[in-house]
Amino acid sequence: MPPVPYGWYAVLRSAELRPGKVVSLHYFGRALIAFRGADGQPTVRDAHCPHYGAHLGVGGKVVDGAVECPFHGWRFGADGRCVEAPFAVRTPKVSLGGFPVSEHSGLIFVYAGPGEPSWEVPEIPETGSGDFADPIDDTCRARIHVQEMRENIVDESHFHFIHGQSEPPVQDLRPDGPFAEVRGRIGRRVLGWDINNTFDAFMYGPGVMVVRSHGPVLSVTAVALTTPVDDRTSEMRMLYYIRKPSRLPFLVPALKLVFRAEALGEVREEVRIWDHKIHQPRPVLLPHEKGIKALRRWYAQFYPSDVPAGQLREPALRSEVETRAGTGSD
């Protein structure tokens, strides 16, 4: 299975790409750069100059809306085409590869896949709403495929062992083309309070998920951004938007402290597990564990049609015993 499912991925927050600056990135197994053109719109291109291979993100600069190579001064516009090459009789007809780019909700998205995208990630209203505090921004990387990061939201049993829920939640996954929704409920005890929240997880392709959790004590919108780094590693960036209490807005710092103490530690525990797990193409599932199979059926649309659903590329170093151990029932 390809390490990069086709779809939109967030590679930067908008505030991280200031006009006139070049930002180095590494996703999809490629060295990349991002900068804003003369019109202020972001672009994400391959990082190495086709002239002699210099990395445009290391010493490169933006000049008149184009990125200038630090080695020989070649310039490339926001569309990737070379616009200037000092001492050349004619400007070379070469370009930097790149991606379709979209910017909204305080995020810069790129589309990874063949052709032009046929769908878009909808705007996320909480990112610009005064009803929510500035987000808690938490980023981590793990040796896991992005699909398995997404499967976490429908892994019913882990909500008890990792997140302290008394029993696995009953969930309902509703697919809608490249979008899907999962509804459920989380019940647990936090600092002496009984938290009984509903949640709705809205999935926008393979790389973007928005989880809205509503409750009488705490309401949070979590924007989960999962992006392939290379064929072995994925990044998960979580932006947690806490709703300000309408009558007690001064409680926001305290709510953030409680949330960090409770939630981020659990995320780190999951990451440690992900870093050492293997992919099971045919997991041995219990009767109540229906979410993983349902999500894999939906997620299969983001791969070439000749790739069987659920079959990830196996890690390079797998023993024969481990391979045989992964042949349980569907």
Structure overview:
With 330 residues, the protein is of the alpha+beta class. The chain folds into two domains: 7-112, Rieske Iron-sulfur Protein, CATH 2.102.10; 126-275, Naphthalene 1,2-dioxygenase Alpha Subunit, Chain A, domain 1 (Alpha-Beta Complex). The protein contains five helices and 17 strands. A hairpin with a 5-residue loop joins strand 3 and strand 4. Residues 313-330 have low confidence and may be disordered.
Produce the secondary structure layout.
Elements: E1 7-13, E2 23-27, E3 30-36, E4 42-46, E5 61-63, E6 66-68, E7 75-76, E8 82-84, E9 101-104, E10 107-112, E11 136-142, H1 146-151, H2 158-161, E12 172-176, E13 179-190, E14 193-204, E15 208-214, E16 220-228, E17 234-242, H3 252-276, H4 291-299, H5 320-325
Antiparallel strand pairs: 1-10, 2-3, 3-4, 5-6, 6-7, 7-8, 9-10, 11-17, 12-13, 13-14, 14-15, 15-16, 16-17
Pathway: Hormone biosynthesis; Steroid hormone biosynthesis; dafachronic acid biosynthesis
Keywords: 2Fe-2S, Iron, Iron-sulfur, Lipid degradation, Lipid metabolism, Membrane, Metal-binding, Oxidoreductase, Steroid metabolism, Transmembrane, Transmembrane helix
GO cellular component, one term: membrane
